[in-house]
Amino acid sequence: MKLRQQTSLLFIVALAANIFLTLNSDAQQLVSADMNSFLEARLASLKTATKPESNSSVKFEQICPVATNAMAKRVFDEYGAVFVVKEPSKFPDRCVFNDTADVERFQRSIKIKSAVIGGVVIELQEAAMDSLIEVEKDADALNLKITPLDGTIAGKRSYNDTVRIWNTRFQRALDHWVQVGKITEDDATVVRKMDTLHQVEQVIAWESDGLYFSTDFSHSIFSSTAPPGTSQHLSMLAIDIVENNDPTVVTLLAGRGWYRTVLNDATHFTFIGVPESELPNRGLKPVMRGGCKFWVPNNAPIMDPASSGTSGPGE
Ligand SMILES: [Zn+2]
From ligand 1's centre to the CA of 123, what distance in Å? Predict the structure, then answer.
């Protein structure tokens, strides 16, 4: 047993070194550690590559109006890591998708690959899927499993999936706060009739007063489920994993470019596709919560100091 553990450890170290070299060999040379400058530089190079004749540069503010829209800012602070994914994977072209048609438009523009992972059909962007298949092989060599959480929605989601999951969390927490007398039935009735964007704004306001909407009502709903149209699963660069509390599984995922990026959502991994040592160069900073390391945008304030796990299909 001891020998087996040592062999496994050696295997992981060798694997990590090998993967690091593979990823690092074609990593871009990056000098900026500021997330905004990294994204502006990325958009500028994208413009040069696709429309060299155009003089007007796309500003990040145009695809995610963080300076003028409170919801966009919050969504970016919580889920913005996805914007620094390594090319040729595509980052979302807006931080809030409007509706089903908008999500389907983006999903048609990306190269999708489907595979059976842990007995579940999963769809992801091609590079993310290729990487996840390698993670599963790495795990298999160690007699470990990689199992998607709650079936196929662990990978790709539709706009309607995000509406359904949001409503489950939102309605449940609203009922709870009405029951304990913190929100009046009249206010709850008004908010239930609002469109989702206004519901999200109201939830943000309630949470700033300490009425949290996560599954256990102890921290933000953003760590429990993404508001409709904002999930990284819509961009097909995220996977929720059952075995997320096994440190070896987390190491294997990181070795292939998958990291936790949504604070307090320990089940959720985002494909960035670069070695961990390069994440700060892409404008991400590490934050520890509940013994887990999360890589979040380095210009984001830390909204939710509470730390605990989540259950069910998370962000
Ligand atoms: Zn997730």
Answer: 13
